[in-house]
Each structure stands twice: as C-alpha cells, then as structure tokens.
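[job 4471] stage=fold_predict status=RUNNING
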Amino acid sequence: MYSIYTTPALVLNIRPYGDNDMILTILTKKFGVLRAVATGLRKEKSKLRFSLQLLSLADISLVKGKGIWRVTNAKHSESLLTEKRINLLEKIKLTITRLVQGEETGNLFEIVTKGILIDTDDVDAVEMIIILRILNDLGYIEGIGLEEFLKSTEITQELVEKSNEKKKEIIKVINKGFKVADM
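[job 4471] inference complete, writing structure tokens
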C-alpha cells in the first residue's frame, strides 16, 4: 500500500512523456524539488489539466513509486503568470533547476512563493533578494553583512529599497555563490 502525500507546490516545468502523460518538475513545501508523472495530463478530458499549469501554485497529492513520484490529485490555488512576474519566474526557475540536484528541503518553497507574491514594481530587486536567499538556503554563500536579507522569507517594500542601496555587494555575493555552486 502506498502513502499519499499532499503538499503545496509550484509547477516549474512540464514536458511530454509518452502519448498522454507529462513529467512535472515541481517545488514542493514538504519535499523540495522533485519530478513527478501526471498520468493522462495531455488528454482533453483530464481533470488535472487545469490544476497543473506551468508556473502555478497548487495543492498536489503525490505517491512515491519505485522510480518516480506520481501525481494522484491536484487543486489549483493561484496562477503566478502575470506580466510583471513572467521574467522573474523564469529566472527563479532556471536558478532552482540549475542548483537543486535532488529532493532538498529547507525554505526554498517559502523563499520563492513569498518573494514572487510581493506587489512591487521593482522586480529586479525582488529577483536579487530571492536568488540571494536561494543560494544561502542551499549553503552556497556566506551572508556576511547581508543578514537583514537572509533572516526571514518575507520580502517587504523596505527590504526592496535597502537592497537597492546594497546592490553591488549583493550581486558580488550572488556571483561568488554561483561560482561555488559550479565547482
């Protein structure tokens, strides 16, 4: 008997698998980044089709199979695709898929979702803060002098403004973190 796990998740990538299935790359709150098969998702009659859209939040029920997770159910909660967020989401998606090699837990889900949901026009500053936090959560940086950006998963307008003041320092730390990650 298999156990069913339900967790909030962000759909990072979707690709075809076989005739009717899709493989999803999802960032989950409980299990970190994982890949799961959604059986029959490409069929027009699929009940999961609208819940599992690219770059959307959903409560996803999963079963761990022998080699891969399988999606058993999903309930759509919010689409993150807005004009302001598309570019940000793509960069965050690339960062996560590049750096996270397996099922890693931590604060990744909160870092990404809370960062993306902030209502601000300064998307570049939000991107900088989210990537800094991702690198920190994965252990690729030392946030010396930048602790105020790392102590929480929340992003406030005040923090966005402070990040612009320390932009050069933050970018330097981010670049160093990517170099460490690529070793």
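[job 4471] summary: The chain has two domains: 4-79, 83-182.
[job 4471] exit 0
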